[in-house]
Amino acid sequence: MLSKKRLLLLSILFFISGMSGLTYQVAWQRALYSAFGSDVDSVAIIVSAFMLGLGLGALAGGKVVDKYPDKALEFFCFSEFGIGLFGLISYQLILFFGDIFIVYNLLIVAIVNFLLVLVPAVLMGATLPILITYIAQFWKNIGQTTGHLYAINTCGAAIGAALTGFILFNYFELNVVIIFAAIGNFIVSILAYLFFKKAQIEKS
Amino acid sequence: MKYFAWSISLLVGLMSLGQEMLWFRVFSFILGGQPFAFALVLVLFLLGIAYGAGRGKMMCTRYSNLFFVGGIVLTIAGFTDIMIPFIIQFTLQENSILFSFFICCILIFILATLMAILFPIVHHLGTNIANGKIGSSVSKVYFFNIIGSTLGSLLIGGVLLDYISISSMFIITGMVCVTLGSLMIIKKTAVSVTTVVILGSICIGLVDKHTNYIFANTFKNLSVNNYVENRYGVIHIVNDDKKGRKNIVLGNNVYDGIISINPDDDINDLNRLYLLAAVHPSPKKALVIGVSGGAWTRALSSFPTLQTIDAIEINKGYLDIIKQHPEVSPILNDPKINIYIDDGRRWLKRNCDKKYDLIVMNTTYHWRSGVTNLLSQEMMEIVKNSLNPNGILAFNSTRSPDTLKTAQSVFKYAYWGTLGFIYASDSMIKLDEVVAEANLNKLILDGKPLFSEESKQRESGAYKKTLITKLLNLGEVEKLYNLDRDTEIITDSNMITEYKYGLWNK
Fold it and tell me: Do the Cβ atoms of A24 and A84 come closer than 8 Å?
């Protein structure tokens, strides 16, 4: 049985994960504008690349967690840690690729944008089905599980977007804001790992 | 059942992201392109989604006929969508723009909530818990939702808004939602499904694709001459009858110049451009970043030594505006003027082999979203790379002293001219009255001298205004503005003119 305390902890972690996710999206969008241009086509490319990455991540996350259902929390930790690691180098990476590929046509730019956000977006997309699978072991109602996690994650995302757009950009540079988001991912990853370890010990 | 749930998941994603794109444009317009518009739409949308997902979760445990419940929710969302343009039109007509803004905030939240209620419901309907493959069946529903969201941003934001106005797009998305909702509610027989789809398609086909309910009542004291709406934004050409000003250009609800090149009455201060003729001995190649209504490019074409003018504009809608105004329309057929539709900074990076004697940017307000890309130190380095040794960069600081500090960090000389127009170069810029007069006398437009003898005597004329320009250095500007802080260098990363020292933080 999933105790209320554990559900609360998992919910908080997924909330922070959502916060980091939207902080990245707002910050990366700005960095990508500087690197590749800020016209409507760039906007559409960036949003689409991000969404497509999330979708592929969701598919991959679902497949993997079905194959190894006992390792759901480990996958979640891995995903969050991976997002954080990418976050740390993302700003420099975007500028570097922008300098190289800006001279190419729209198709190449679209592919480069897609590849740039692919790794973190896939990992972000994977976290929802992974956690749903974990909690559904206890709740059995998919609608209830999805609704709960989606609401928590999205609430975090809203706070992340608000913090970034209204406060952080007033006080910190873009690259620093991205590092804050990465720290959020590391915190989530470490706490989820400790949570998982404790659950394992109790089980045995 | 799962295929139907996947389809609903995809279409709900498409409608949701499409609506987010539409709301972002409406908010950008209402807020005049302030940088927090995007974050605000995102926050309201996400809060609505979070609340809606929670409500959906509750419905999944309370109701057994989730198709019916989901259908009702989607139908209500659809009717709300259809009402949006009319609600905004009404509130703008009767109340202040601030009140309309609050109404829009509430509407975003309600709509996002309604759409998000569907999310857990379609997951519930499309997931098979019995076969032990929860992860992959959940992820498929989620995947279709995200594919729909991707299509929503690409289709609606990237393509359809070129052919359908924002108001009409709201009505059409509403009709799609009502049709989908009805499909969820009805008993699924071939006849009933076909009937609903045909009826829905007919209604969507009948919608006028160019309605203008949302922006029709925005300007209470101005009369609208011309209006262009496309996927790049909304442009209005208005008259201010009280002040007797005509052909004022508003790009996304913010002043973007005046279509006038009248040298006798220099209402749009083209003297800031003519100063370049006064101080540069013989410019041959010029670049204009931001054509807007075309007045600056047209005025620049009067420089007799210029052989080529390249002009970059990000919104192709301005070309339609220019076509309709004979004062500026010759720039479209002038053989020495080449107009490109592109992002200015990207164009410069892609054409770094081209060198110019003059680069002119009549930049929009320094606090608007994305303007850092034109005012930052990084951009000035790019511009410097495209200038000939004696070349001059002239741009509009819109009175942000930090822009002068930034220009000074890149160029040897940077000065603050009329209305904060900045002139930067690695060669000294000096306004010698005798040389300036001689150069201004050489300006020719349509085969005639730009300045007649009478025009030269007018106090409000461009000739006199150019000659009395005072060029200030950074120290003088800091003293003039009496800032209680040090001026700072703008970078791509700190975005200070948009945020730290933006419109609300001065």
Answer: no
Cβ atoms of B407 and B432 closer than 8 Å = no
pLDDT score, position A181: 97
Contact A182, A92 (CB under 8 A): no
Count of positions (residues) in chain B: 506
Q: In 3D, which of B357, B360, B313, B315 has the Cα closest to residue B338?
A: B313
Choices 3.90.1150.200, 3.10.450.50, 3.30.70.20, 3.40.50.150: CATH for B265-481: 3.40.50.150
Q: Is the pLDDT assigned to residue A43 strictly greater than 90?
A: no
Residue A113: what pLDDT? 82
Q: Which of A30, A58, A148 sits opposite B146 (nearest CB)?
A: A58
Structure tokens, B398: 């819109």
Let me know: does B275 contact B417? Beta carbons within 8 Å: yes
Average pLDDT over residues A7-15: 88
User: How many Å separate Cα B447 from the centre of its chain?
Assistant: 36
For an interface test with A, give the residue of B17, B69, B138, B506 to mutate (most A CBs within 10 A): B138
Domains detected in chain A: 4-196 (1.20.1250.20)
Fold of B2-215: Growth Hormone; Chain: A; (1.20.1250)
Instruction: Reply yes or no on whether the pLDDT at A41 is more than 80.
Output: no
| Contact flag B143-A58 (C-beta cutoff 8 Å) | yes
User: Which residues 6+ apart lie within 8 Å of B281 measured at CB?
Assistant: B390
Please name the helix (run of DSSP H) or strand (run of DSSP E) that holds residue A131, with its range, or none: helix A106-139
CB-nearest to B350 from A31, A43, A102 is A102
Domain ranges of chain B: 2-215, 221-256, 265-481
Comparing CB atoms, the residue among B120, B154, B342 nearest residue A147 is B120
Element (H, E) at A62: helix A40-67
Nearest chain B residue to A154, by CA: B50
Question: Distance (Å, rounded) from C-alpha B320 to C-alpha B336?
Answer: 20
> Model confidence over B21-73: pLDDT tens digits?
899 899 999 888 898 888 899 899 999 988 998 888 888 888 888 889 999 99
Residue B1: the pLDDT is 66
**Which single residue is written with the structure tokens 């897609």?**
A114
Cβ proximity of A103 and B349 under 8 Å: yes
Please give the single-letter amino acid code of residue B478: E
- B-chain residues near A44 (CB < 8 A): 153-154, 157-158
Asked if B477 contacts B401 with a C-beta cutoff of 8 angstroms, the reply is yes
More confident residue, A49 or B106: B106
Tokens of B456: 């030269």
Residues 92-151 of A with CB under 8 A from B: 102-103, 125, 128-130, 132-133, 136, 140-144, 146-148, 150-151
Measured distance between the N- and C-terminal CA atoms of chain A, rounded to whole angstroms: 15
Residues of B in contact with A155 (CB under 8 A): 46-47, 50
pLDDT at B131: 61
∠B236-B238-B243 over CA atoms, to 5°?
150
- Reported in sequence order, the residue ranges of B455-504 that DSSP labels E, i.e. its strands, are none
Question: Rounded to 5 degrees, what are φ and ψ at B282?
Answer: -160, 80
Instruction: Tell me the HSE value of B118 on the side-chain side, using a 13 A CA sphere.
Output: 34
A157 shares contact with chain B (CB less than 8 Å) = yes
Given a cut of 50, the residues of chain B with pLDDT beneath it are: none
Q: Hey, are the CB atoms on B346 and A102 less than 8 Å from each other? A: yes
Q: What are phi and psi of A152, to 5 degrees?
A: -65, -50
The C-alpha atoms of residue A204 and residue A171 are separated, in whole angstroms, by: 48
